[in-house]
C-alpha cells in the first residue's frame, strides 16, 4: 500500500483536526482509500516546528491544550516555525497549508504554496487568499512541476462546491452561481428576524464560534467577496480581482427591516453571486437581497451555507452544507488529498509514486 507523507503548515484548528482524523481513523481510512497518511513535519506561528522523517507521534501533541503546545525541546523541534526550510527542504509528498487568510496580498500563505509547488510537492489548502488572488499562477506552477494544487476548502469548507461544479456537471453550461457563503451573517440575519439587534447578534455569533474575532469581514461581506471571486474564476472562467466584485454587507439591515420582510413573505440574505452576461463577461457581487420564500436560498437558516448553480440543462441545482468548522474544513483537506491521489497516482503505472513506494523501488 502506498503512503503520503504530509507537512502541515499551520497547526490551528484545521490542521489539528486533520491530525486528529489521521491519528484516530488512519487505519480505516487507509483500508477504504488504498493509501496511508503520515505526518512528517508541522509548523506553527506559536508552537514552532517539528520534523521527524520517520513520522511524528501525533497522540501526545493532540493531548496538549492547543495554546500550550511548544515544539522547542522535542527531538526535531524548534521554537522557530522555519516555514520556508520545512516546505522547501523536508522530504514530504503533500503540503497541507492552513494558515490565516490575508485578503489583501494572500501572504504568507501565497509564498508557502509557491515554495511547495516549486519544490515539487503537491499542495492542498483551505486558504482563500492564495486561491482568490493567484489561482492561475499557482495552477501553472503546479502543472510545470507535475504536482497537484487542490483547494476545495476555500469555499464552504468540506461541502464539495468546487468539485461538484468541476466533476459532476460535464456537458451542461453553468450560467451563474448564487450562494449564502457566510454562516455568521446568515445566523445574524435570522436573529434580526427574531427582533435581536445587530450588536447583540454579533456577540452571540462570536460566542457560538461562527464569527471571526474581528467580525468585520463577516458582516461587511469581504469574506464572501473572496469566495465569489473563487467561484467566478473557477466555475465561470473569469479572471476577477477584488475591485471587480461589488461588496455590500448586512450592517445597514435593522430588526425592523428583517421582520417587515418576513411579514411580506421575504427573507433578507447576504447573497454572493456571479452571473455570465450576454457578452460573455461575468458580473460578480455581494449584497443583501430580500429573497421570496420559494427561492432556493430563502430556506437556508442559521450558520448553514448553500450554493445554487444555474444551469442550462438542469435548471437550478443547490448544494447545501457546512461552510465552516474545524472538522468540516479538515475534511476538505482530506478530500483534496484523495483528489491528488486520483489525479496523480491511482491506477497509473507511469505516474510518480508516493514517497514510500519510490523508496522501496529505489531500494
Ligand atoms: N466566519 C466565516 C463564516 C468562516 O461565518 O462563515 C468561514 O469563512
At the first level of CATH, the class of the largest domain is Alpha Beta
Low-confidence stretches: 349-353, 355-363
Strand order of the largest sheet: 4-3-2-1-5-6-7
Largest sheet: 7 strands, mixed
How does the overall form come out from the CA principal axes? globular
Name the helix and strand elements from N-terminus to C-terminus, one letter apiece. EHEEHEHEHEHEHEHHHHEHEEEEHH
Q: Kindly identify the CATH topology of the largest domain.
A: Rossmann fold
CATH superfamily of the largest domain: NAD(P)-binding Rossmann-like Domain
Helix content: 25-40%
Ligand identities:
L-homoserine
Number of domains: 2
Distance between the ends: 16 Å
Which helices and strands appear, and what pairs or packs with what?
Elements: E1 2-9, H1 13-33, E2 35-44, E3 48-51, H2 58-63, E4 77-78, H3 83-89, E5 94-97, H4 109-118, E6 122-125, H5 128-144, E7 149-150, H6 161-168, E8 174-180, H7 183-193, H8 198-207, H9 216-219, H10 222-235, E9 246-247, H11 255-263, E10 266-276, E11 282-292, E12 305-311, E13 315-321, H12 326-344, H13 355-362
Parallel strand pairs: 1-2, 1-5, 5-6, 6-7, 9-11
Antiparallel strand pairs: 2-3, 3-4, 8-10, 8-12, 10-11, 12-13
How would you describe this structure to a colleague?
The chain folds into two domains: 2-157 and 326-362, Rossmann fold; 161-322, Dihydrodipicolinate Reductase, domain 2, CATH 3.30.360. The chain is 40% helix and 22% strand. It has 13 helices and 13 strands. The chain has helices at residues 13-33, 58-63, 83-89, 109-118, 128-144, 161-168, 183-193, 198-207, 216-219, 222-235, 255-263, 326-344, 355-362; strands at residues 2-9, 35-44, 48-51, 77-78, 94-97, 122-125, 149-150, 174-180, 246-247, 266-276, 282-292, 305-311, 315-321. The chain starts with a strand and ends with a helix. The model is unreliable at 349-353 and 355-363 (pLDDT under 50). The structure holds L-homoserine (HSE). Residues 182-184, 210-212, 218, 223, 323-324 line the site of L-homoserine (HSE). L-homoserine (HSE) is lined by residues 182-184, 210-212, 218, 223, 323-324.
